Amino acid sequence: MSPPIALFRTFAKNLSMTKAMHGWGSYELSRELSISMRDREILIDRTCARCGCEYEWGVHINFFAQRVGFSSEQVTSLTHGSPSDPCWSSPRDRLLVRAADALHDDSTISEPLWELLSVEFNEAELLDILLLCGWYHAISFAANAAGVPLEPNAPTFDSVRALDNAGSAREALQLANLDPDEVLRLVRAAMTEDLSEAGDLTSLAVVPADVDLEVSFTSREVGVACGLRVVALLCEDSIGPSVRFRALVADGDRIAPGQHLATLSAPARAVLAVERTALNLLSHLSGIATATRTWVDALEGTGVSVRDTRKTTPLLRDLEKYAVRCGGGANYRRGLFDEILVKDNHVAVAGGIGRALDRVAAAHPRGAVPVQIEVDSLDQFDEALAHGAGQILLDNFAVNDMRVAVERARRCSRDVRLEASGGFVLGEARQVARTGVDSVSVGAITHSAPAIDIGLDVVMPADLQ
User: Is 1 contained in some domain?
Assistant: First the structure.
């Protein structure tokens, strides 16, 4: 079992104080808090950043940012930016950042801001917002003054920078929690698939070698941009030092028809050689981000998160899961290796829900690996609950049965997280959310998302102007 984090080791020097703090601290991070986990993390991250508490900010960014679907641009904005940054497309998100700033700067909320908050949040939620910010001011002051050291591998304020400030496409990918080497292998394989050894025969025959070209990646429809960091690396690697790639929007930004997403200037032959691969990646990933954002928008204000699945394109999983994050969704497990999901076939082979869970507990004691079990009936749900399941996937449950399952789970003394799954459509999203589940898993956001129509518009070659 991992040792306690540095903050807890520091506070443990005063056990009476630590015990007194435990109840309130547990409430602020529990299901009892009236606002969603995403709302909570916006307030905590912003408050800690404004207090200059790199320690507590880093703990929450490391543990929660990906889970609640923050894009790298949103993490950067929470750390260094403002509520008017374009990455905050949701009015609710912007209001939370404004509230945290107001409480930090003025120790109060102005009447106009309070009126806006009152439209979006009920009285219980407003009180939780106030006390949550106050609590993390106190934590920040204590961690700063006590000199609590950063956790191993924790992010730092300096490591979080906007894409325009990144020194290279590789750095930009690292900031997005993507492995640049893996992405590089992927884009090189894609270019080899298209060019083989002969290269672009058409351009070699038609386009003079000494002509430079400037092009614009332009959206033809409404959507959410994703893949610009990947395309930047593709262009940087394929074209070399002569390339000039400039992103005009960030991954995760909403886009409109006719909007320019990025410009590319380089030798014309090189531009035309990367065109199709770049557009394929950009259109595909933007399609996933857009599909995800549609679900997230449909569930806005419910506190229910949208999670992806393993139903991804072979070898594109990390990029597609990144696109989900850019759309405001949350990632489930990367593969079979990092979390356990006991599905119907596992249950059948093991001889029942209880036996399957017992075998998991024997193989991975003390919660070393996150465990979720899939059930398809209330009887199976009750059995899973009785065997101590902490995460239960309600597969193909009718809405009324979901509601019953939620009521039974809430009567437990322990925290049980419920996820709804089963191919329901967007129009049913809020009905499912109203049952009280914590999340919905939607395979369609990756396996069936239509590509966004993005084109490459040529600016007149410099030699012909």
Answer: no
- Looking at residue 236, its amino acid is E
pLDDT for res 219: 96
173 burial via Cβ count (<10 Å: 0-12, 13-18, 19+): buried
- Minimal CA–CA distance to 74: which of 160, 153, 157, 134? 160
- 182 lies in some domain: yes
- Among the options 92, 220, 276, 430, which is catalytic? 276
Domain shared by 415 and 303, yes or no: yes
In the structure encoding, which two tokens stand for residue 371, read together? 């465990």
Q: Over the stretch 123-153, which tens digit does the pLDDT of each residue have?
A: 999 999 999 999 999 999 999 999 988 887 7
Q: Tell which of 108, 143, 159 closes a domain.
A: 159
Identity of residue 115: E
Other CB atoms within 10 Å distance of the CB of residue 193:
9
Q: Judge contact between 437 and 417, C-beta under 8 A.
A: no
Any catalytic annotation for residue 343? Answer: yes
19 as an active site residue: the answer is no
* Whole-number pLDDT of residue 3: 54
Respond yes or no: is residue 276 known to be catalytic.
Answer: yes
**Active-site hit among 67, 161, 343, 430:** 343
The count of structural domains within the chain is 3
Residue 425: Cβ within 10 Å count: 8
Q: Calculate the alpha carbon distances from 161 to 63, 137, 153, 248, 389 in Å.
A: 19, 24, 17, 16, 40
- Residue 59's domain comprises 6-159
Q: How far apart are the first and last CA of the chain?
A: 67
Last residue of a domain, one of 159, 193, 213: 159
* pLDDT one-digit tens code per residue, 286-296: 999 999 999 99
pLDDT for the residue 90: 85
pTM (two decimals): 0.69
Burial 233-255, CB ≥16 within 10 A → b, else e: bbbbbbbeeebebebebbbbbbb
